[in-house]
Amino acid sequence: MRLEIAPGILLWREKFTRIEQEKLLHAVMVQVQDAPFYRPQMPGTGKAFSVEETNFGELGWVADKSGYRYQPIHPITGKAWPAIPGSLLKLWEEIAPSYQFEDPPQCCLVNLYRAGARMGLHQDKDETAAAPVISVSLGDEAVFRIGGSERRGATKSLKLQSGDVVAFGGPARLAYHGIDRIAAGSSTLIPGGGRINLTLRRVT
Predict the structure, then answer these.
(1) pLDDT value for 10
(2) For residue 82, how many other CB atoms are within 10 A of its CB?
């Protein structure tokens, strides 16, 4: 069932069933063999993120001392990113037209949250396309916070469980959002525990 959290912000509870989650996780981990997780660095300071990341698609989002950007190769291996799994492309084809957008995604950012990892409030603003951002949760429950286009504006907190999907676009395309905390051990899906977040984006 689709829920409208705020203008432009949509939520589907358990959009992926447990069996579908297991299949998607398998597809993700196969791709990760070619594009291993790594820890990005904060621009300027070089401080490592608490979240591990990788990407699928023709472009991948990276962060290091020199800044934030999209690039076609993995920063550690120097190889092209692997393809976006088919089930995620189908998800995009289903949801993106709701935002009057049909071009395919160019990037799937993959975030791995182990116990204690979090992501501060931020905007996804390194893209020039007006496409929505579509996000899939796998594994441990997370407290997701999303607000408006002003950092100090009001925010809403949502508990995201494995299989949930969130999309934001239109008036909410530049909404500040982040992950406050992970409920470690709340899911048995991911070996070793944790949460994987898959974020589909159109860059250009």
Answers:
(1) 96
(2) 20
Q: Domain range spanning residue 165? A: 2-201
Residue 123: the pLDDT is: 87
Nearest CA to 120 out of 178, 174, 63 is that of 178
Tokens coding 167: 């999309």
Give the phi and the psi of residue 179 in degrees, each rounded to 5. Answer: -115, 115
Q: How far apart are CA 162 and CA 82, in angstroms?
A: 23
Number of domains in the chain: 1
142-146 and 177-182: which strand pairing?
antiparallel
CATH of the domain at 189: 2.60.120.590
As a whole number of angstroms, the distance between CA 35 and CA 56 comes to 8
Query: Quick one: pLDDT at residue 95?
Result: 97
Which residues of the chain register pLDDT less than 50?
Answer: none
Q: How far apart are CA 192 and CA 107, in angstroms?
A: 26
Sign of the C-alpha dihedral, residues 182, 184, 190, 191? positive
Cβ neighbour number for residue 87 with a 10 Å cutoff: 15
DSSP H stretches of helix in 33-79:
none
- Per residue in 41-52, pLDDT (tens digit) is 999 898 999 999
Cα–Cα distance measured from residue 39 to residue 48, given in angstroms and rounded to the nearest whole number: 6
